[in-house]
Amino acid sequence: MCRNIKTLFNFEPPATELEIRDASLQFVRKLSGFNLPSKANTEAFDRAVADVACAARVLIASLVTTAQPRDREVEMQKARAQSALRFGRT
Prior knowledge:
Elements: E1 11-12, H1 17-32, H2 39-62, E2 70-71, H3 72-87
Helix pairs in contact: 1-2
């Protein structure tokens, strides 16, 4: 599950709210062991996702770097090429 969490810092354009929420959801799913919580746990689960998303936004906004922002398309192409090498796809 956590393999789906992508790096969100230092990209142009910056990470969207949806990307931050999706990464937070994946993180909470991994920690809790629930893909979909029961009705009894939904409130706690949703609160945890919101809290993690808030912490992620604060972290991303607080980080500094001298590196040039990365391009999402270029990084996606690199990942696809690496996957093709790893799994033998063309």
